Amino acid sequence: MQPTGTLAALKEQSTSGVLFALTAAALYGVSGAIAADLFSEADPARVSEARALITSVVLVPYAWRRGLLGMDGQARWLAALGINLALVGLTFYWAIDRLGVGPGATLQFIGPFFVLGWMAVVQHRPIRRVTWVTAVVALAGVTLITEAWALDDLDLLGLASGVTSAALFASYFLIGEHIGKTLRAVTTITWGFVFASVFWVIVLPLWTFPTDLSNTAWAELIWIGVGGTALPFLAQFAALRRIASGAAGVVATAEPVVAAAAAWVLLDQNLSALQIIGGLLVVLAVGAIHVLGVAKVDRPMDIGF
User: Is residue 221 a contact partner of residue 31, using CB atoms and an 8 Å limit?
Assistant: First the structure.
């Protein structure tokens, strides 16, 4: 039996982990809508490139001032994370551009199933039944809130992009959990986006970047880099230091709910009854992660690959 003080500390860590994950989901939700608005002036690859570069410019001086640029022998993992960060955003943008926001977003959020599958099959970690239930409930809620069935024509490239985005989304959680055992969140996300920036500069040289964007588009790019990327990623990695990747992945499904709620309040885009039910299902799943102890029991551990 664990001492009362230890249980209280675990409870506090679980609470802060869920709150960090929810904060990240909220910022991602707003950022997704802004990114979609940018596609009329810049293609998804350029938005992904700008996001990586702006985030690096913001985070490198901050990490340097705090003395948090040491890799501690994790260079190869940070490079892998950087490539993942470059590609997960790109494939997600492709999916929502070709399939629509609803179906595209829903496809990415099958990622938590990949995470739980890896934990159960490869790592042989015991996954509680309630964890699987919350994942299914969360996915059902995301399907309703995004109206994922509203797919007029099957776009195979869009479908492939969405599934790839989900797989990368899952590997991002697993790699982040591994790196989080030895490095601070600031160090991890800073180097991750530095490597992502290097990847994009090689693939899409800076001198080919469009310079005729409107002032609004430039402002949106800056927001995506700072408020829509640097801050939520820091929050997400802080969450991964406190709760398991499977639990963090389920909490992340709150993102489309936040996006829909923001559109409802700020843009006067009404939600249907099914979308409201979907939002409630996601809230229920996120609550279960904390109240039923999923985030506390499925503790983070080294992923072993």
Answer: no
